[in-house]
Write a structure and sequence with these properties.
By secondary structure, the protein is mainly alpha-helical. 51% of the residues lie in helices and 6% in strands. Strands 3-2-1-4-5 form a five-stranded parallel β-sheet, with helices on both faces. It is globular.
Length: 427
């Protein structure tokens, strides 16, 4: 980035803080490896399947670089949009391996579900994150030192080669290895001493698999907020070993303190899911569950898409993220079939589409997959209020998988981990 960026108002940061593609980092094929279709997701799942057993368990923690990813599944962008589901990944894996052989991979699938269930039971965490993020953005506008350090971090101009590489890799691919995400977050918080919320926002704006639960709670875990007082510290020898000696950072923070939080997140019981009405209904599809049509007993009168990608952040969301989400929505509408009444990217736009379709179809029911706490749910809050005032009712349906898994996510992951065999048998 140009140093002139520091002269711009905060409103311009979102447009300017995109990391430029640097020629030579990745070849063209690696930059565009993720295609937002169900067919592409299933193809990747079957390609990875032979390596989901002991091979995955032994090599999953290694980040060999963006062109050597055959030790991990790379399924997260499709899972994030539910172009393929957690349940079918588990079932497909267990059709080839025993649970004991594929235990590590299966656990990683359930980790994602654990975070989603935990956030559903502690929704104040998402609200607090949004409030704190806005406060950090406001601070950037008036704190030159903080702005300078933030500018160097998101531009990949720090003194840490590994961190700069991960910034560029994220910008070019929309993806980072899970271990690199942990190192990145730890360096951001403890070495660069930047607010964790700004880092979580940077990820959410650039990751194709950016998910409110996994991303927010992952950053909180590194910071010592999720498991109170227990931080994740990036260490030189660990990075050297698990990057296969690609990086050897010598100036990492050695004795950081965990971040305090008060009051602690409040717990709530997850409400029961809604039911599909017996009468005709309109289906609203978001990029959180592009296979929602498989939950329907009959076809909707019309289908509408809601692309809520811009609601991820007050700042600029990466074009690749928006393109993948848009492609996923288009795929979802194709899978539903029937009459498509349009796609909107704003709360006001989707409200207008829903009212127009309801009038044209003479229906008063809207059905959609229940949105998890995050950008989509936040954006839909005002939509639901407007629909209620106009005599339309929304019905939020939930998958059996989510019901079963979320019932075990009120405490740490260990509780869910012990229940995995039982949950699989129930599925």
């Amino acid at each position: 980035m140009s140093s002139a960026l520091s002269l711009l108002p905060l409103s311009a940061i979102g447009r300017m803080s995109k990391v430029p593609t640097l020629p030579g980092l990745l070849n063209e094929q690696e930059r565009f490896r993720f295609t937002p279709t169900r067919e592409a997701g299933l193809k990747q799942m079957m390609s990875f399947l032979p390596r989901a057993g002991r091979q995955y368990a032994n090599r999953r923690n290694y980040d060999f670089g963006p062109e050597k990813r055959n030790n991990v599944s790379l399924l997260s962008p499709w899972i994030r949009h539910r172009l393929i589901t957690e349940e079918e990944i588990v079932k497909t894996t267990l059709s080839r391996f025993s649970l004991s052989t594929a235990e590590k991979f299966i656990q990683e699938v359930f980790w994602r579900s654990y975070f989603k269930g935990w956030l559903e039971q502690h929704p104040t965490v998402w609200d607090t994150y949004r409030t704190d993020l806005q406060a950090s953005l406001n601070e950037l506008d008036g704190n030159k030192d903080l702005f300078s350090r933030y500018e160097k971090a998101v531009g990949g101009y720090t003194d840490l080669e590994c961190f700069n590489f991960w910034v560029r890799e994220l910008a070019e691919t929309g993806y980072l290895h899970n271990h690199a995400r942990m190192w990145f977050a730890s360096i951001w918080i403890f070495t660069l001493q930047l607010p964790w919320t700004l880092g979580a926002d940077f990820f959410l704006r650039h990751l194709l698999d950016g998910d409110a639960a996994s991303n927010t709670l992952g950053w909180r875990w590194v910071a010592g907020l999720h498991t109170k007082g227990k931080i994740y510290l990036a260490r030189r020898d660990n990075i050297r070993k698990y990057t296969d000696n690609r990086f050897d950072p010598g100036n990492l923070s050695g004795q950081p303190s965990p971040i305090d939080e008060y009051p602690p997140p409040r717990y709530r019981t997850i409400p029961a899911p809604g039911q599909i009405p017996a009468d005709a209904f309109i289906l609203l599809v978001t990029d959180e569950d592009c296979l929602v049509s498989e939950l329907l007993p009959n076809k909707p009168s019309s289908t509408i898409g809601f692309l809520a990608t811009e609601h991820r952040s007050p700042l600029h969301v990466a074009e690749g993220v928006k393109q993948f989400a848009r492609g996923a929505i288009d795929e979802a509408l194709r899978l539903v079939g029937g009459k498509i009444a349009g796609t909107a990217s704003s709360s006001r736009g989707v409200t207008k589409l829903l009212f127009n379709a309801a009038k044209a179809d003479n229906v008063c029911h809207i059905v959609m997959a229940e949105p998890n706490y995050g950008p989509v749910k936040t954006a839909l809050a005002e939509v639901e209020n407007a629909l209620l005032q106009g005599g339309l009712r929304m019905h939020f349906i939930r998958r059996k998988y989510d019901n079963l898994v979320w019932s075990q996510t009120d405490r740490g992951f260990f509780k869910l981990k012990k229940k995995i065999p039982e949950l699989i048998s129930l599925l």
